[in-house]
Predict the 3D structure of the following.
Amino acid sequence: MDLWSILTWVVVIILLSVTYWYMTIPNNLPPGTAGLPIVGYLPFFNLQPNITMDKLAKKFGNIYYVYMGSQLSLVLNDFESIKQAFLTQGDTFAGRCHLTEFENTNGEISGVVMTDGEFWKQHRRFIIRNLRDNGVGKLTIEPLILNEIQYFLNELKKLDGKGSFDLKTYLATSMTNNINILVNGRRYNYDHPIVADTLKSLKDFEEVVQVLPYETFFPWLKPLLLKLNSKRLARLANFRAMADKRMASVIEETASNFVAGQTDNYVQAFLTEKNNRSKNNPNETIFTDNGLIAIALDLVNAGTDTSASTLVWTAMYMAKYPEIQRKVQDEIDSVIGQREPSYNDRSNTPYVEAIINEIHRIVSLVPVAVPHRVIKDTTFYGYNIPKNTMVIPNLKAVHYDPKLWGDPENFRPERFIGSNGECLKPEYLLPFSIGKRACAGEPLARVELYLYFVSLMQNFTFLPPEGKELSFESPPGFLIQPKTKLISIKTR
């Protein structure tokens, strides 16, 4: 075969591939783009995907399709479409996609965050019930959190006058204990190896996780992509191995003192449920040892990083806007004084609540929620959405929608204060998402954020880091983290 024949066949194959690519696009999709053959639109995505999603929304509208590699995806950019998908059609849109970032060391998806089906349903119900039974959302959890806050405040008081410091480390250390008490019933000293290992693994995950990892969308190229991206994925694998080992050790320690029927913490409740089920079904597959490790890790990771990061941003905004900081301190001084705060104080401290709400909105810590999956063919706003379509909710687009907020670029807690001085709770504020996939730890997070913020404002005034300006830049990542977490404090 001569050179021209070979080139002709190459051109024919390319043309056939391109034709097949565009002909296989399902009918009656929303407006959108298939991008390029094979790779889809993925090469054009910003490292912060919500930026690209915003640009595409201006072209196609708030509901559009886009291909990530060969994965058909539905992007939702406004509150009404997200509400329709996750509340009105919640069962259909409650699936999860297989994202490689969340695989365990065996290449499987485990835990409760990234699974779906019967496994996810049963474990989500069990987690919510266990957290409720152990005081989350009730006043019985307060003494545990307030006790931990005192340890935290004592550590911060040692730093007064000693220059700027990384507030995130201290917050994460403290909040790890809150979730540890719920998970395995134990509080650890701040210098305990378990605490150090937890913080290191969270830092590793924060630095290497990607919202739209290429290896997820090109599974047939995964071996090559693993080699090309070996350094990042090696750190990710090390994070998983360390985390699994640490949690297995914690569970083993808890199990060694376990008495049948105990339910004082999550591990005990899980073991009790597992034993009860095993008696009736020796082949039980929902409550297993590996499942316990994965779900306990989900609880610790999710229960530490997000709340700690939210409070770091809160401190930075207080340092940037001292007049707002003084106003909230005045409210706290007037209503609570120097006594320990209670979650019941919320109704009498609307400005505290307004600031927390405005931090949720303006930061949008999780700008793009973990993608959902359509579990069956469905109709959505008159469009046909095939089974297994990935659904990507752009939460930051909702939080910056000028039709909802007027001046979304401005930090203005007063937007949450009603005409009678009460704190408003608009349904389109979505820091924990909505529907069946909303964060199960939301009740705990709300209690923590309120009690920690009030306690910090009672005791300290936040200032910019010494000799530096506050930076509100954020590196690309799953969470919007401040590029620098340095802050200074002054004891009141």
About this structure: The radius of gyration is 24 Å.
